[in-house]
Amino acid sequence: MKRLFAISILIISSLLLNSCGTMYSPALNANVNETKIVLSQNNFKIVGQVQGQADAKYICGIGGLSRAALRTNAIDDMTSNANLRGSQTIANITTHQKVKVISPFFIKITYVATGYIVEFY
To answer: Could you tell me how far CA 26 lies from the centroid of its own chain?
Structure first.
């Protein structure tokens, strides 16, 4: 009886105190922007950095968007946060995926897109 109680306490505490996280950062060159930039001359300056984010929550594997849609939403959010004017564009766009497992049944996936605002003159 004591052994069954100890095993059940161990299983319950491992389920309640479990938290895992991973990060995946693929090097992809699939931009929403189709701007071709030639940086052979010194006719540009980097104005700043811009970031966008999208996340989804899954309970028992149900809910949220696909990972491709999350990535696209993060890049769209970054583009809307940029407030581009005139001859500005976003260059060097990278995305990072963070997966947070709070319990075996609840998962949160977050995509963060980052890029540099480049202004040509």
So the answer is: 11
CB 105 within 8 A of CB 59: yes
Backbone angles phi, psi at 20, to 5 degrees: -125, 155
- Which residues, in sequence order, are CB contacts of 61 under 8 Å at separation 6+? 107
Interval 76-89: pLDDT, tens: 999 999 988 888 88
CATH 3.30.110 fits 19-120, yes or no: yes
pLDDT tens digits along 39-84: 677 888 889 999 999 999 988 878 877 888 888 899 999 999 998 8
Residue 98 CA to residue 15 CA, distance in Å, equals: 21
| C-beta of residue 67 within 8 angstroms of C-beta of residue 55 | no
Tell me the pTM. Answer: 0.65
Q: What are phi and psi of 31, to 5 degrees?
A: -85, 155
Residue 114 vs residues 20, 87, 88, 102: alpha-carbon distances, Å:
24, 19, 16, 26
